[in-house]
Structure formats: C-alpha cells, structure tokens
Design brief:
This protein has two domains: 2-244 and 372-438, 3-Layer(aba) Sandwich (Alkaline Phosphatase, subunit A), CATH 3.40.720.10; 246-364, Gyrase A, domain 2 (2-Layer Sandwich), CATH 3.30.1360. It has 14 helices and 20 strands. It has helices at 23-31, 46-55, 59-62, 88-96, 105-109, 123-127, 160-175, 193-198, 204-229, 253-259, 292-300, 312-316, 399-407, 421-427, and strands spanning 2-9, 33-38, 68-72, 78-82, 115-119, 136-138, 143-144, 184-189, 233-239, 245-251, 273-277, 281-286, 305-310, 326-332, 334-338, 344-350, 363-364, 377-380, 388-394, 432-433. Strands 7-6-5-8-1-9-18-2-19-20 form a ten-stranded mixed beta sheet, sandwiched between helices. A four-stranded mixed beta sheet has the order 15-16-10-17. A hairpin with a 3-residue loop joins strand 11 and strand 12. The N and C termini lie far apart (43 Å).
C-alpha cells in the first residue's frame, strides 16, 4: 500500500538544522533528500502556506492572500479579516462562493482513501487543509470528518505539551490506526513557532521548543518505519513552513497613512484603504473608487518599506493585483544584523490588527527576508535518494503534486501551480551530498 505523511515543525529556520540541535530531522535528511533551495510563500505566514500546501497553488489562485487580509464584497466595500479565525473561510465562501477557489488534497483524495489532518496552529490554518469536510480534521477548537465527527481535542494547548498529545494521537489514528488507514496524514505542530513569537530567537526557551518538535518527528519516524517493515511504501516529508526574523522595530502603517492624509484615522476600516499587517509584510487593499497614485507615492518614500511590490511584481510573488482590492504589498525593511543571541536577521514589523501583541525583539515572519524565506523540507522514501541536497528551487505549492505523484493519482483535471519534486529532481543540476558544512548552525 502506498501512503504519504507530512510533518511540519512550524517556524523552523533552515539554519537551525544540524546533528546537535535537530538530530531526528538531520537523521531524516541523511536517509532522504534535503531541498537546499526550499522557500516559503508570500506572505511567509502559516495560513497562506497551509492553503498553498493543501492546494498546490499560489494565493493568486486559491484566494487566501494572507494571515490577515481584506475581502471585497459585491458592493465594492472592503472588510478586514483575520484568516486564523474559524469563521473566516465561511465568510469567504459567502462572498466568493467557495472557501478556497481550487480543490484541496482532502477533496482530491477523498475517493482514494482520504486525508487526516492533525493541526495545532490557528483554526483558520487547520481549516485551510479541508474547509469543506472531505476528510478528517482534528484541532483543539474544531474537528470534522466525512462521517461521524472525531472526538474533541480540547485538552490540547498551543505549546510543547499540546504538540506531544497531538503527535501521539496522529500516530495512533493516522499512521497506525486499527481501522481506516488514510492515504495521506498531515501533522502540523505549533512549535517552535509559538515559542519563537514569545521569546528571542536563540534563547533557551526557543531552542527547547525546537528540540521538542524534533523529538516529536522522531516518534513519527519510528512509527513510519514500523509500517514500512510491514510492507507499506511510504513517502515521508518533514520540515517547516517559514523561518523567523527578530523584530527590531514596529511600524504603525495605518497611523503613517493617516498622518499623510490618506486615511481618516489609523484604525478606520470604512475609508477604502486597509493596510493589513502580516508580521514583517503588509497587504494594502484599496477600494475601487480610490485613486491609487497618492498611496503608492507615499509608500515608495517611506524608509520602513524594504520592498514595495506592485502590478506585475505581485504576480512574481504569487499574488494577483486587484484581487479583493489588493493594490500592493510591502516587505518591511530588514538587515542581516544579529540579535543578542547571535542569530542573524532583524526586521521591522507592521503593527498587528487590534488585540494582537507587539513583541519587540522576539521572532516574526511574513515578508521576503532571507531567513524567514528559508524553511526546511526533507523527502524520504518514495524514490528520493539518501543523503543528497537537491539544489533546485522549490516551495509549498510543489508538495501536493509530489504527494499525488507518489500515490499514483493525477490532478483530476484541475491543474496545480506546483509540480512533482520527484520529476524535477531528476532534471535538476547534479545532486550534492549532505555535509555538516551545508548548514549554518547558530551558536550554542
């Protein structure tokens, strides 16, 4: 029987990979192929990556543009949304007719054995894998299945202990269940992301969260090996969705626009201009009746703007100009400076939506910064060579087609933006062998 499993350690930077800090992930890389040029999405945020992983498509096609975003209704009015809320995809369905505009793996694989998703991040991120209940979804706040609903997971918290409980249940119900064996199981841990948002990168607390997530991966690897010993052909993919940069300063973009006379007030949501924070990036939505030129001129003059992405350049980062009023995007200014623990990558962050914490000197992500755009991905089994580093560029949209190729299923007539990594690997430049020197292990 062919099956596939995807394990995500949310927020793990690729330069944290090494035999001492992440021994199980390092061991998996020695057994499989490390994607040496794997990058995140834009914004480099979990809800976006979840939707792109599930659909094999960029935000321009699946429609979940950011961790937070605006939706443009039929009257031309903009409505701000936190895509992590359990109600977000239902709200999007009400406006646009679908939760996501293309099928997910859960929908594609429903007739072939189904998908089980175990997610310990935000409810919206979890639902992005299966918004229409084609498979099994387990989360601390929500759960569904194609038939009888699964047991609740209310005892799971967004922390190291919560990940441990979820991993145990993932192994019991997805990897080695007594009855139904899904063809795809997804385990999306909340760590080390949750801890890195609270503590400085490189701090003892951050390293402890990384070690705990790596230990959970080791448990999954052992369970997968037992299934292989019983004769199953399993592709195991493990890594992360984005990295983190240290927050070196916080910019209130709404207040800046208001001071320039472009918004009625910093927090106004009814003036047709919504600059919506995605951590170290901003999605700027503009109502159709507003003139974009003054907004673009102002943003182009601001020192806190690292990259101003407009027009066709939005397509180059997987976004569609004009979609839900998207005028432009900002990747905030950053540098390769180090934080007090010697971890490189310091970025400005945009003040988040009301009610969310500003965490100066802690981890953040969302933009195009070097390290936040350098997550990890390892593919083991399914024909991927052991101990190699694949230098070809890849990103989350390639995961779904890789899984479908391993399982022997096509795209069902709905093509994806990504392509199978197994096919591209054979046509990429000569593979490199994995060595300790291939990674930049941060200081102890």
């Amino acid at each position: 029987m062919k099956r596939a499993f995807l394990v995500i350690m949310d927020g793990l930077r690729r330069d944290a990979l090494g035999p001492e800090r992440t021994p199980n992930l390092w061991r998996l890389a020695a057994r499989g192929t490390l994607l040496g040029a794997y990058r995140s999405m834009f914004p480099s945020a979990t809800r976006v990556v979840s939707a792109s992983t599930a659909t094999g498509c960029y935000p321009a096609r699946h429609g979940l543009l950011g961790n937070s975003l605006a939706l443009l209704d039929q009257h031309g009015l903009l409505h701000p949304h936190d895509a992590g809320a359990p109600s977000f995809l239902a709200a999007r369905r009400a406006i646009h007719g679908r939760a996501l505009d293309v099928p997910t793996l859960a929908e594609r694989l429903a007739p072939h054995g189904g998908v089980m998703v175990f997610s310990n991040v935000s409810p919206g991120s979890a639902l992005a894998h299966d918004p229409d209940a084609h498979g099994w979804l387990l989360h601390r706040a929500i759960a569904h299945s194609p038939g009888d609903g699964p047991a609740e997971m209310s005892d799971v918290a967004l922390d190291v202990e919560g990940d441990a409980k979820m991993t145990a249940r993932f192994i019991e119900e997805a990897v080695n269940p007594r009855e139904h064996r899904p063809v795809l199981g997804v385990l999306w841990m909340g760590e080390p992301d949750a801890s890195q948002h609270k503590f400085a990168l490189g701090s003892p607390e951050a390293w402890a969260a990384i070690a705990a997530a790596d230990a959970r991966l080791g448990e999954v690897m052992a369970a997968v090996d037992r299934c292989r010993d019983a004769g199953e052909d399993i592709l195991l993919m493990a890594g992360s969705d984005h990295g983190h940069e240290t927050v070196g300063g916080i910019i209130d973009v709404g207040a800046e626009l208001a001071a320039a006379g472009l918004k009625s007030s910093a927090d106004a949501i009814d003036d047709g201009l919504l600059p919506i924070s995605n951590g170290t990036s901003v999605l700027v939505h503009l109502a159709p009746e507003r003139d974009p030129a003054p907004v673009l001129r102002f943003l182009n003059s601001r020192p806190w703007v690292g990259q101003l992405i407009t027009g066709d350049a939005l397509r180059s980062v997987g976004q569609e100009p004009g979609r839900d009023g998207l005028l432009c995007a900002i990747s905030m200014a950053r540098s390769d400076a180090t934080n007090p623990f010697g971890i490189p990558g310091v970025s400005l962050a945009a003040k988040p939506m009301s009610g969310k914490a500003d965490r100066l000197n802690c981890g953040q992500h969302g933009g195009l910064g070097t390290v936040e755009q350098a997550p990890v991905m390892v593919l083991e089994g399914g024909g991927f060579a052991a101990g190699e580093v694949d230098p070809a560029e890849a990103c989350p949209v390639d995961i779904a087609p890789t899984i479908l190729a391993h399982l022997g299923h096509g795209d069902g007539g709905v093509p994806m933006d990504g392509s199978s990594l197994s096919g591209r690997r054979r046509s990429s430049p000569a593979a490199q062998k994995l060595h300790v020197s291939d990674t930049r292990l941060p200081p102890s």
